[in-house]
Amino acid sequence: MKKIIILVFALVITINLMAQIPDRPNPPRLVNDFAGLLEQSEYNNMESALEQFARQTSTQIVVVTVSDLQGYDPSQYAPELGEKWGIGQKGNDNGLVILVKPKTNESKGQVFVATGYGLEAVLPDAIVNREIVDNEMIPRFKQNDYYGGLAAGINVIMDITRGEYTAQQYQEKVSRGGSAGIPFVVIMFVIIFVLFGRSRRRRFYTGGSSLPFWLAMGMMSGSHRSSGSFGNFSSGGGSFSGGGSFGGGGAGGSW
Question: Which of 6, 77, 83, 122 has the lowest tally of Cβ within 10 angstroms?
Answer without folding.
Answer: 6
